[in-house]
Every structure is written in structure tokens, then in C-alpha cells.
């Protein structure tokens, strides 16, 4: 732990995943050069990109360690590979489409020093292309009926209305700091998700081990949002659908899980199917149904909650 008002600076391992986006990752590396925290290691996991990003990354941050996965391991798998290569007391997992602000790391470490029950801590998010506009100031709980949730403060002008340290339901997967000690007890991020919902599941696991999830308003990060998957891609439609169901199967007890299933069958499926047909988005329609079928073909989702 970092004692308050001391000169001890624990090693923080910054971990980010690159996939065919070396330019954006290099921009993140450039922002790290202006960060004043003195004890960092930077690890970039390349998830099987078509072209090696090593030169572009190390041009901007020569000390960066690039780990080549050899194939696309997904968000969770890539981050887990980075954690395995890290030696820090704390791991700061960040999207490659983020940029740091001064004091970001110090503010997150402050939470761990003051709250021994801290499991995962996320900063405040602003949209990179609309600085001053909030993306994230905490998360609401996933609704037991719909399997959906929302970010607190999203798209609001930041007038300090969320400038209060608080416990939150989930960390933002785009920037979350965890302690190596806690990860040793909880385990790595669940790789079954591949993309989307994995950080929610991970936070649920932290909570089951007695840890809390915190939002730190003093720390700010800028997010370019959906630079890898695209804002409306079939890939996103598939994994959002697949993993929404999977998360509920793994984390919601009966009979609430049955209520969700009924909601999904009688409301979500007809609504989304009709919308994709009306918009003539056959590729998205196929992705939506493939996400459903994946769950039907996997009767045992390695449940981590009691029935």
C-alpha cells in the first residue's frame, strides 16, 4: 500500500492491448511521456495484428515492453497476457484509445491507500473529441430484468456534479486499476467473453471476494470510444448479444434468471429482429441470432453463482 504523504511510489504496470491500430496506441504512448508519476512499466500486448506495431510504439515510448500474442485473444485474453508479463504492485488496464491526464495515476493510488477493501478503481471519463463532456462517472447496476445498464453522467457537461468519491457497481473496462494482491485472490479476467461484459463479470467476482469497486473523480482520462470495433459493427452486435445472455447466466440466480429469459424471448428478440429487418441490416440480424445460438449450444456456462 502507498502511505499518504510519503515518498514511496509503488510500481504501476500500465497494460494496454493493440489490435491493428498502432497509430492510436502510439498516441497513447505519447501521452504517457507527459505523466509525472515516477515508477511505471508500460506493457503493450499486440493481439495478432496484421503488421507489427513495435516500431511505432517504441518510437513514442522507448521503454515500452511489447508482448506479441500471435493471435487475437480478445480484450480479456490480451489483458490477462499483459498481467502475466507485469511485475507491478498495481495493474492499470487501459484501452489503447485513451489518453492520460496529469495526476491520473496518483488519484487512483490514493483510493487503495485509504480503502483496504478497494478491488477495482476507475477514473472519471471524458470523451476525447468532446473534452468537458462526461462519458463515465460510475456505473448503475445491471438490471435483473433486461440485462442492461448505463453509465452515470454519460453525455452530460461536466460541471462538477459528480465530483464526489463513491462506490460504484462496475469499473469502466477502458481504464481500471487493480492490485496484484487482489488479482492473486480473485483470478484473471474471464476470457470466455472475448469482448464486452468481461469487466462486469470480473467486478462481480471481486465483490464475491469481499472487495469494493470505486469511482475516483480526482482522476481523469480521455476516451476516443470504439476505435477498434466501430460504433455499430456486426462484431459488436454479436458479442453484446452473446455476452449479455452469458453474463446473466453466470451472475443472476434463479428465479430472477428465468424472468430475464422470458423478457428476452418475448420482448428483446421480436423487437431487435423487427428493427434489423426494417433497416435491412441483414448482417446485424445474423450477428444477433448467432449471439443467441452460441448460448443455446453452450448449456453449461461455467456458472460462478449458486443456482
Give a quick precis of the structure.
37% of the residues lie in helices and 20% in strands. It has 307 residues and is an alpha/beta fold.
Quickly list its features.
307 residues; alpha/beta; Spore Coat Polysaccharide Biosynthesis Protein SpsA, Chain A; 2 domains; 10-stranded mixed β-sheet; 9 helices; 37% helix
Account of the protein in words:
It is a single chain. It is built from 9 helices and 10 strands. 37% of the residues lie in helices and 20% in strands. It has helices spanning 22-32, 54-60, 74-85, 104-114, 180-186, 198-208, 234-251, 256-278, 282-296; strands at 12-18, 40-46, 65-68, 90-94, 98-100, 118-127, 130-136, 166-167, 175-179, 212-223. It has 2 domains: 12-223, Spore Coat Polysaccharide Biosynthesis Protein SpsA, Chain A; 234-296. Helix 6 (198-208) runs parallel beside helix 7, helix 7 packs parallel to helix 9 (282-296) and helix 8 (256-278) runs antiparallel to helix 9. The two termini are 37 Å apart. The chain has 307 residues and is of the alpha/beta class. Strands 1, 2, 3, 4, 5, 6, 7, 8, 9 and 10 form a 10-stranded mixed sheet that branches. Helix 2 (54-60) links the parallel strand 2 (40-46) and strand 3.
